[in-house]
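Q: I have two molecules that I believe assemble together. Could you output structure tokens for the complex as a whole instead of separate predictions?
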Amino acid sequence: MAELNHYLILSGVLFTIGTAGVLVRRNLITVLLSLEVMLNAVNLTFIAFGHFLGSADGQVIVFFVITVAAAEAAVGLALVISLFRHLETLNPDAFRQLRG
Amino acid sequence: MEPNLILFYAFAALAVVTSLLVVAQSNPVYSVLLLIGSFMALAGLYVLLSAPFAAVIQIIVYAGAIMVLFLFVVMLLNAPKEDATQAAIGEARATRVIGGLLAGAFVAELLWALSRSRTMAMPGPMGARESAWSVGEIGQIIFTKYAFAFEATSVLILVAMVGAVALAGRHVAGKRPG
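A: Yes, here they are, computed for all two components at once.
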């Protein structure tokens, strides 16, 4: 039987992969995908704790997290589309007009 | 080795490998498809954790709906691959190194903290439940204990919908002639 620590370590590794993706990649869509990886790592933590505490609350929280992820993806992709219309690029380094 | 542990390691390895490939791919279409594989592996882990409802909404909503949205945007934009010929390639390499170091330090810290905490492996006061949670039980909790959060979620979805249309929609109707 896999213990709670197994799941927590897996979740930490997945979250780190997502963080590295957000920091390293220079493509807005891949950055959003890395955010989804991070959200999934957190979901795994919620469900693992819920299972090992004998509670269903973890699953309910995951339900809400998935809803928020859907909203985040919709707004984030809309932002990406309008940014791409302005500058014809997806490189986050190109959007530096506010830098002064 | 128990079958549960073997399944855990199989799904965990699949999730880690596909997630790494998501971050490493230069073509966003492959990234999206690999992320769906990562979601499938996590859904298998949710089933092992006696949460079949979460596994099913993970596949239907996440892999089915959200990833299709991503795929639509990738194909709609028809974006060029990550530009490697930019002038600031030295800056990009520095960012890569710093980001990789930070990520490595983060995972080392997590592993260190988890290896020190033996008490966390113990089940809580109620103990782990072996049988899976049914959809009926989950629904009862959502609509009683979390009823307000559920209703607030609907407002959130509405706001996201209006925001997405306002941000990405083309302003043609009556704004500018021609």
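A: One point stands out. Chain A has one domain: 4-91.
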